[in-house]
Write a structure and sequence with these properties.
By secondary structure, this protein is of the alpha/beta class. Helix content is 45%, strand content 19%. The protein has a 5-stranded parallel beta sheet with strand order 3-2-1-4-5, with helices on both faces. The protein binds adenosine-5'-diphosphate.
Length: 166
């Protein structure tokens, strides 16, 4: 049973994430998407909202062998607890490399039996990121080609409720 954990901020989930997930399902028996508690970024969506968004996408796409979860601790502790042998990450540009290399090396120090596996982005999605999608949406740009349909709905209501608050 090859079980991989796909950790990330997923704020929000994009077609880039979906592409990696689909391809990973042809390699692994099971993928657990783990919305990670991150201090690096100031997220738009709460962890619970991000889990709901991803669960809706997984359902809408009819994907099996996928679980969605939230974890605020060390990802290697999660991997151990859930008996996963692999950490899955995507690579877009050379600029991703340094951070990913550092994380993978650190994780290897923590738990050497778990392998980090990288998948290269697809050529039509290399520029897609959560922050690019949020930026584009805020300024009225079209995001339909970069995120699943349900994400457009979630973004719409989030930005509307935020603008009411301001
Ligand atoms: P994090 O804050 O952990 O980097 P992200 O949600 O930005 O979280 O990304 C999660 C993972 O998905 C990362 O490994 C990232 O490189 C990968 N990823 C994001 N967008 C794409 C894309 N367009 N193509 C391939 N991989 C991607």
């Amino acid at each position: 049973m090859k079980r991989a954990i796909y950790p990330g901020s997923f704020d929000p989930w994009t077609n880039g994430h979906l592409d990696i997930l689909r391809r990973a399902l042809s390699v692994f028996d099971e993928v657990i998407i783990v919305v990670a508690g991150t201090n690096r970024k100031n997220p738009l969506f709460s962890p619970e909202e991000r889990v709901s968004i991803i669960s809706d996408v997984v359902k809408a796409e009819g994907l099996e062998r996928v679980q969605v979860d939230y974890w605020s601790g060390l990802i290697m502790d999660y991997a151990k607890k859930h008996e996963a042998q692999f950490i899955l990450r995507g690579l877009r540009a050379a600029s991703d490399f340094e951070y990913e290399f550092m994380m993978a090396s650190m994780n290897k120090e923590i738990l050497s039996e778990i392998e980090t596996v990288f998948m290269m982005t697809s050529k039509n999605l290399f520029f897609v990121s959560s922050s690019m999608v949020k930026e584009l949406y805020r300024y009225g740009g079209k995001i339909d080609s970069y995120v699943p349909k349900v994400v457009v709905q979630y973004l719409k209501s989030k930005i509307e409720s935020k603008s009411k608050e301001d």
